[in-house]
Specification:
Blueprint: H1 3-10, H2 12-20, H3 24-35, H4 41-73, H5 78-91, H6 93-98, H7 108-115, H8 120-159, H9 161-164, H10 166-194
Helix pairs in contact: 1-2, 2-3, 2-4, 3-8, 4-7, 4-8, 5-7
């Protein structure tokens, strides 16, 4: 079952589950489906807000109560945990408000914040704000993707096969740019470690 089928079958419950488990793909897809009239945009915003809020509050409390045991049990999380802790120490409130948007440390972040001694009240207030922003932005992004997809399909129908010849060229260009960027990033990291 793919994401679209999952949401089509379970509706808002699927959106809730997706928002519990770092489900940007579920939320974006739900936004597309809202644009097409299958779900309510406000409905998916509210449900994704509740899911992400509950998940991060739960993970925060896990961090407060069992964070050290958790990290000891899974040493592979150490690098991500250290990155999250460094960002928390450096940016504090800004980090708590924005960790949902940072790839690779989204799930570990509330655990680390819970371990760090941030008060429950402070985290809860910032979590409500951040969950609201994340839910609105993610759902609206999916909605916009749905609108863009409809416009793209209309353009393909209008210009036909002529437009399809450009698609592989654009994809290859994007992949090439990403590969060059990755190579430059790896090279600069290697330069830093050699110094």
């Amino acid at each position: 079952m793919n994401v679209v089928e999952f949401i089509a079958k379970y509706g808002y419950f699927a959106v809730f589950l997706g928002s519990l488990i770092e489900g940007e793909s579920v939320i974006l897809t739900a936004g597309v489906l809202a644009q097409q009239g299958y779900l309510s945009l406000w409905g998916i915003i509210v449900v994704s807000f509740m899911g992400t809020l509950l998940a991060d509050q739960f993970l925060f409390h896990i961090g407060r109560l069992h964070g050290n045991k958790l990290l000891a049990k899974w040493p592979s999380l150490e690098a991500k945990a250290n990155r999250a802790l460094n960002l928390l120490h450096k940016y504090n409130t800004l980090y708590i408000l924005s960790f949902r948007f940072i790839y690779g440390i989204r799930v570990i972040s509330p655990v680390i914040i819970g371990m760090s001694g941030v008060s429950i009240k402070r985290f809860s207030i910032l979590n409500v704000i951040a969950a609201a922003v994340w839910s609105v932005l993610s759902c609206i992004a999916g909605y916009a993707l749905g609108k863009g997809g409809v416009k793209l399909w209309d353009s393909v129908k209008e210009f036909g096969a002529e437009m399809l010849w450009w698609l592989p060229a654009v994809i290859l260009l994007i992949v090439g740019i990403l590969l060059v960027f990755k190579k430059l990033t790896v090279t600069s990291k290697n330069d830093l470690t050699q110094k």
